[in-house]
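Feature request, filed as a ticket because there's no other form

It would be nice if the structure record came with a short human-readable summary line next to the tokens. Right now we just get the raw output. Example of a typical job, pasted below so the devs can see what we mean:
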Amino acid sequence: MRTEFLLRRTRMHFPLLEVADVKIRPIEKGGSDRKFYRIRCSQNQTLILVKYNLEREENRHYVEIAKFLETHGIRAPKIYFHDAAEGLIWIEDLGEHDLYGYRHDSWLVRRVFYESALDEIIKLHRLPESVCEEMKEHLPAEFNTALYRWEQRYFFNNCLGRYFKVSESTRKELAALPSLREIAKRLASLPRVLVHRDFQSQNVIIQNGQANLIDFQGMRPGLAEYDLASLLFDPYVELAAAERSELICYYRQKQADNRRVNGQFDDTLQLCAMQRMMQALGAYGFLGLVRGHEHFLQYIPRAVRSLRGIVGKIEDLKPLASLLHELGSSDQSV
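Raw output as currently delivered:
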């Protein structure tokens, strides 16, 4: 979209801005169909402008979700103005320092930021069901058996098929493993809470030492363990096993009085990690090879390694674990 049009709309909705001072530049971010711009209003003031696709339903609900998060004390960008007719949202600029940007810092530094991120997501996970009901009309479909099965197929088609060129017959055989269907049913049977859905390092902005959630338009009812797995098995950042264990302990301690965090927690976390890795690998293959965002392909080896470690512990998924081992051995970057 031409920046002249965006500048005109900004000046129209924010008439007190000095016209000569308003500057705009695009922000390259992820594989989303949304476009992001940083607007410099003055030397010390900036805004973020989001242009979203009007045809994609979940984009329309971003504003309602943001206001919901603010109401319940969950740190996220404030909404300044929403031009629904043009699909434009002006939001608070929280800065350019996401959790991903600290990946090379010491664990002493990173742990504080990870704990802050967990503090915010716990606020979401602890919201009572009565409160969650208020948001249902603004949220995508909840995690159910069909959605978990879709994530699995997304992986088989776009990662194993498009990227690794695994034959269709092999993919169909593996996708039909009874254990995969049973895992989807088991996860779908568990009590749901509100989840971010894409709770990973690039969707956590650190401002003044505190975590803020962004890209939450996919929020829906699901399992808290799915969000936790998204952060702890994040292919963008390689956490050491000890670091991951510390964060799991931190989350469990913070949720000690929550009955949902029970004896099934560890098993559920592992199954959610499997689902999340399948979803991420499917996305990397699709975005990299279909949408032309090739930089996503670099994260496939690490995600495959994580998925291989998780699947290898599930007895009935040994055929899939064997294939992942073969693919890893043939790819020197894994």
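Something like this underneath would help us a lot:
The first strand starts at residue 23 and ends at 27.
The chain has a mean pLDDT of 91.
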